[in-house]
Amino acid sequence: MKLENFRFETDADGIALLTWDMPGRSMNVITEAVMSELGQVVDHVAGAEAIKGCVIVSGKEAFSGGADLTMLQGLGGEFRRLARSKGEEEAMAFFFEASSRLSRLYRKLETCGKPFAAAVNGTCLGGAFELALSCHFRVLSDSEKTRVGLPEIKVGLFPGAGGTQRVARLMQTGDALQMLFKGDQIKPAQAKAMNLAHAVVPRDKLVETAKEWIKSGGSAKAPWDVEGFKNPSNKVHSPAGMMIWPPANAIYRRETQDNYPAAKAILQAVYEGLQVPMDLGLRIESRYFAHILQTPEAAAMIRSLFISKGELEKGARRPAKVPPLKIKRVGIVGAGFMGAGIAYVSALAGLNVVLVDRDQEAADKGKAYSHKLMSDQVMKGRAKSADRDALLARINATSDFNALKGCDLVVEAVFEDRTVKAEVIKKVQGVIGRRTIFASNTSTLPISSLAENFERPSQFVGIHFFSPVEKMLLVEIILGKRTGDRALATALDFVRAIKKTPIVVNDCRGFFANRCVLNYIREGHLMLAEGVPPAMIENLAKKAGMPVGPLSLNDEVALDLGWKILQATKKDLGAAAVDANQEALLKTMVVDLERFGRKNGKGFYDYAPTGKKLWPGLADLQKTKLVADAVDRQEIVDRLLVVQALEAARTVEEKVITDVREADVGAILGFGFAPYTGGPLSYIDRMGTKAFVALCEKLAARHGDRFKPNKLLRAMARKGEIFYGRFNPHKAAA
């Protein structure tokens, strides 16, 4: 055997150890070469009489993150090439065989006649976990870093190498469907309880335990290959089965709004696969997998949520000439909700934090937020008391600004007021070193104007976190007119250290995310003012693919904040810059009725310990009331998506966004723009700029100038261009 990605050795007992250790990579991934070599190993083990069985282990800290999705992207390109040259039928035959290769390889391993054991430490996800599932014995390390799972649904795919069939035969059908739909990473003890693993042992006992299983006569047959095997939930067409499948279909519809073909394929593959023998079930799964790989949803989600997201996190926008920076000490000024959250994620990443506020009581209160978050983790069994103590020891809460000396980066997170921020900036620059980078966490105030208060504007940058900091993945890095490369590099290195996804935007009012999402909220306000039933607005927003409706979202971010932003915009840009109908609605809600949103228990919704419901009084605010059946549902969906996508296109034209990947990734992670579309620019590209411009013009004729397409879109429509063609980031890099 010629192996480059594996090491193969056999001990005195005739037990082979296959160590997966790809050269030049920090993480093992499944590639064409890996599949070829694994196939050689299976043949060798099966054919060598002296070999009793084989243990598969990783030579790296983690087992594997799964398949290289760029490989799957390449299959799509080859399919299109073959379709043009040799016809659709031959291209489809190639595509099916190529996309099912991994599934067939794993089944070959499973039925080769020799026992295989997977010894898993660290991350083992996707196709790598499907490899483990095809092994006859699975032993997991009890390390805190060990996680297994099938997260393919999160990038528009589903497990296509046997995952849907094996999981559904290992546990109750309802539990299997939930696991496949959620795509969560599962801890070792939980995996064992779910029947996904046979044993959990200390890391140094992994290989020994796996070998002992083989030595003691471990079976080379999977449970489903043993005569008399019965599915855990009995037959699909049985009284028990009928308790599962109708509700499962209803839950699928409710949760996906039929926007995610991969979720429907999971339902179909499991439903059909459980009615036939394993080999036929795997072939059914492979057919659905080949179909899903060709859907525009999968293509868009793979590009934005896997490839582009990964490139941005690895520093695609980082200035190449700035040497790597090791950030050790971070200062945070302002221990309120945002500052406390930034302190927590920084300390969680192992950074030393100086948390400063106006007095010791306020600073301590900010640190207490980290104590609460860690205590919650301890209560849920996700952390230990020692972890909490260690994290809190890294946070120095103080009222003394002099403690900021020696910080590599200082992040200001005080009240959103120019005067307050200016005072803090001057106070901080009096104590920090001349090479310390200063960042402002602001969601509305232009960075360039704030930088005027700093002596070294080239070292001033915006770092806009989203709330709550510990949950939101996105961070906007805002470049002022004079922000230098070292400030940008420091900000990017910081965001990478705290395991967030950065996008880099140029300075403007609202930056990128807030510009788009405020348009979404405004559209909900205007629909309400038009007389559209409130429940219809909210439900059709979810049908469009948004995580929550615009009225619910406005309640979360606070109606009074929206009112303040509207008044500030009016003051700065004039009355024409705000919509009179939106202003009137917010005035009634905030000023007259004091309905501020979730924070005071009443907004567009009423809030109670038992849950929330739309406020009945909304009907009284509507001068016109439209009958639901008279409302064009598709137009509501179009308006809610188009108004955001159009704003994203404007940010590209204005050069606020200079990399199309950042618009799509930022929109999905920052405010949940319909993930199945791949983001607002991908949404336009999929529709085609010509069709999108026509839709904008139709909506503008009915609802006003806010839907008028900008010059860039019109020019692209005339030339038949798309964003990922005209602004291809990889072409620019080349």
Overview of the molecule:
With 734 residues, the protein is an alpha/beta fold. It has three domains: 289 residues, 2-enoyl-CoA Hydratase, Chain A, domain 1 (Alpha-Beta Complex); 181 residues, Rossmann fold; 213 residues, N-(1-d-carboxylethyl)-l-norvaline Dehydrogenase, domain 2. 51% of the residues lie in helices and 11% in strands. A hairpin with a 2-residue loop joins strand 17 and strand 18. Helix 1 runs parallel beside helix 4 and helix 21 crosses helix 23. The model has no long low-confidence stretch (mean pLDDT 94).
What's this entry about, in short?
With 734 residues, this protein is α/β, with parallel strands linked by helices. It is built from 33 helices and 18 strands.
Total number of strands: 18
The appropriate CATH architecture of the largest domain is Alpha-Beta Complex
Low-pLDDT sequence parts: none
The number of helical elements comes to 33
CATH topology tier name of the largest domain: 2-enoyl-CoA Hydratase, Chain A, domain 1
CATH first level of the largest domain: which class? Answer: Alpha Beta
- Helix/strand/pairing category: alpha/beta
CATH superfamily of the largest domain: 2-enoyl-CoA Hydratase, Chain A, domain 1
The percent range for helix content is 40-55%
The coarse silhouette is globular
The largest beta-sheet arranges its strands as 11-10-9-12-13-14-15-16
**Major sheet description:** 8 strands, mixed
The value of Rg in angstroms is 28 Å
Beta-strand content = 5-15%
Domain count: the total is: 3
**Taking all residues together, what is the mean pLDDT?**
94
N-end to C-end Cα span: 37 Å
